[in-house]
Design brief:
Layout: E1 3-9, E2 12-17, E3 20-24, E4 45-47, H1 53-56, H2 59-66, E5 69-73, H3 74-82, E6 88-91, E7 96-99, E8 102-108, E9 125-131, E10 136-139, E11 159-163, H4 172-182, E12 186-190, H5 202-212, E13 216-217, E14 225-227
Parallel strand pairs: 3-4, 4-5, 5-6, 10-11, 11-12, 12-13
Antiparallel strand pairs: 1-2, 1-14, 2-3, 7-8, 8-9, 9-10
The structure holds nickel (II) ion (NI) and manganese (II) ion.
Nickel (II) ion (NI) binds next to loops.
Length: 229
């Protein structure tokens, strides 16, 4: 009855819930932080938050090799179909569905979502996972701070994965405000220090959370795994 979260660098995570392997935003072979290559990754489900290259880069190849179910918004799920990926499930913002691992809801993200070939990628999203074993995990996707995050407090999030790198998404100070709204037990920052544009002072986030929130910050190194308590 465990949920474990492995960080692969940038925005790429594997969440393993009782043997169900969920791969989020697979970006390996051109990811400056990655330590493993796309061909070594296994997955049962692939979740795509939005269409940008740094979130979908290796998704088609991994989906075809593993046969994993690709879960994303309608436009991106349709795009995967056109790339020859048959096994897809479309959701859209605010909608949720019961999967073998538990329930997954597409949450609001304020960002862009064009796909690498210029195709329209619909609205960007985050994910709220309510796993069958009772653990709740929120993945923000690429997003600005938004007051809509306040609703997530009702979901009693065990671990929130939050973008913090600034420039393209909320920065470390806004991410502290996000933690105040979401009230997770633990928080893992990501989407920072991959490139110069998103280098940030992570101490602003860690110290802000320590001083202004009751959430525990978990700094997850690349290929390190955190087991949700
Ligand atoms: Ni993006
Ligand atoms: Mn991004």
């Amino acid at each position: 009855m465990t949920v474990s979260i492995t960080f692969h660098g940038h925005s790429t995570f594997t969440i393993n819930s009782d043997g169900h392997r969920l791969l989020i935003d697979p970006f390996f072979d051109e990811n400056p932080l990655a330590k493993i290559s796309a061909e070594d990754v296994e997955a049962d489900f692939i979740l795509i938050s939005h269409g940008h290259f740094d979130h979908v880069a290796d998704a088609v190849s991994i989906a075809k090799r593993t046969g994993a179910l690709v879960i994303s918004n309608f436009e991106i799920a349709s795009w995967f179909g056109k790339q020859g990926v048959e096994n897809t499930h479309p959701l859209h913002i605010g909608g949720s569905n019961q999967f073998p691992f538990g329930r997954c809801k597409l949450t609001i993200a304020h960002h862009g979502s064009v796909l690498p070939d210029g195709s329209y990628g619909g609205n960007p999203a985050g994910f709220l996972f309510k796993f069958n074993n009772g653990k709740t995990v929120y993945f923000s996707g690429d997003t600005a701070l938004t007051y809509d995050m306040k609703w997530l407090a009702d979901d009693h999030v065990d671990v929130a994965l939050l973008c913090v790198g600034d420039n393209f998404t909320m920065g470390p100070a806004d991410a502290v405000k996000a933690v105040k709204l979401i009230e997770p037990k633990q928080v893992i920052p990501y989407h920072f220090d991959t490139w110069p544009y998103i280098e940030c002072d992570i101490d602003v986030f860690t110290q802000g959370c320590a001083q202004e929130t009751s959430a525990q910050v978990v700094m997850l190194g690349v290929e390190n795994t955190h087991t949700v308590p």
